[in-house]
Design a protein that fits this description.
WH_DNA-bd_dom; Transcriptional regulator; WH-like_DNA-bd_sf; about 50% helix; Arc Repressor Mutant, subunit A; WH_DNA-bd_sf; three-stranded antiparallel β-sheet
């Protein structure tokens, strides 16, 4: 039996930043839209404001999520959007998960 060389398993395509369940869920919610309001993402992912804020800060620091603040009327609002790098990283992460689930140990 031939074993794959180092670094060929699809798990090497996983991104440690977005692999955490809440961050992965945030990325998935944002992947479906150009941008989303903070409250919508919070409710979709089913977390508190503080939990979402911490996870978004991590994703923003990694360059995966852009945060925009503004107003709707007199009410402050925060919108979240995936950056181009965030979209590409999320797509690659999902490809790696599919390869692992499908047993594609050669990575492609």
């Amino acid at each position: 039996m031939t074993r794959p060389g180092p670094g060929t398993h699809p798990r090497h395509g996983l991104d440690e930043v977005i692999h955490a369940p809440v961050r992965f869920s945030v990325m998935a919610a944002l992947a479906a839209a150009d941008k989303a309001e903070f409250a919508f993402v919070r409710d979709t992912v089913e977390v508190s404001d503080s939990v979402l804020s911490r996870q978004v800060a991590t994703l923003e620091k990694a360059g995966y999520v852009a945060v925009t603040k503004g107003y709707v009327g007199k009410r402050p609002r925060t919108w979240l959007a995936l950056t181009a790098d965030g979209r590409a990283t999320f797509a690659a992460h999902c490809d790696a998960l599919r390869a692992i689930a499908g047993g594609d140990v050669a990575g492609g």
